[in-house]
Amino acid sequence: MTTSCVILDIGGVLEITPATGWVPRWEERLELPPGTVNERMGDVWLAARIGRVSERELREQVAVRLGLDASQVEAFMADLWTEYLGTANEELIAHVRGLRGQCRLGILSNSIVGARERETELYRFDELVERIVYSHEIGVQKPDARAFDAVCASLEVRPESCLFVDDLAVNVEAARAAGMQAHLFEDNARTIARIAAHLDPSPRPAPLA
C-alpha cells in the first residue's frame, strides 16, 4: 500500500504573511524613487533564496547597495523578517499536528538564508513535520521541478502519493506537472477538506432520498 503524504508551503499557508509595506517605507525614508530597493537588491534576493550568499553577505550587500549604516541595516533586516515570518496559522498548524502518524508530512518552502533558524525558534516546524526542504539549502526554488523531486526524495515517497499545498497557482501547477496532487490554498476550511479527501479517497455513499 502506498503511503500517503502531505507537503505544505510555509509563507501564505502555515504562516499568515500580509504585505506590511516595509519596502516603500524604506524608499520614502531614504528618499529613493519607488522600486529602487528591489532594482538594487533583486539579484541579491535571488542569491539569498538559493543559498548563493550567506546571511552575513546579504547584510553586507544591503549596506553597500542602499548606503545604510550598521543601525539602519539592523532595522531594515528586522522589517524584512517581520513580514517574512508573519504570524502562525494556528488552525492549520493544529490540524497538521493531528495528522502525525496518519501520513508522511513535509514542508517545501521558497526561503532565504536564515529562515530555518528563525522559523524553528518561532514556530517549531521541525517538530510539526518529518522533513523541511528550503530553497536556500537545496539551491533551487519552486516552481523548478527539482524542488519537488528534492522533497519527495527527502521523505522517500513517490510524487503520486503526495498532496502539495501552496498559495501560488504557478507552484500548484508545477507540482501537478511533477506528478503530485496539488491544492491552491485559499482558506483553512477548504484546505483541511482537501487534505481529508486525499487521506481518505474512498467514495462516499449517496445520501438517501
Question: Can you describe this structure?
Answer:
- The protein has 209 residues and is α/β, with parallel strands linked by helices.
- The protein folds into two domains: 5-16 and 87-199, Rossmann fold; 22-85.
- The protein is built from eleven helices and seven strands.
- The strands form two sheets. A five-stranded parallel beta sheet has the order 5-4-1-6-7, with helices on both faces.
- Helix 2 (36-49) packs antiparallel against helix 3 (55-66).
- The longest helix has 16 residues, at 70-85.
- The protein is elongated and about 60 Å long.
- The two termini are 35 Å apart.
- The relative contact order is 0.18.
- The mean pLDDT is 95.
- Pfam families: Hydrolase.
- InterPro entries: HAD-like_sf (IPR036412), HAD-SF_hydro_IA (IPR006439), HAD_sf (IPR023214), PGP-like_dom2 (IPR023198).
- One of its GO terms (molecular function) is hydrolase activity.
- Keywords: Hydrolase.
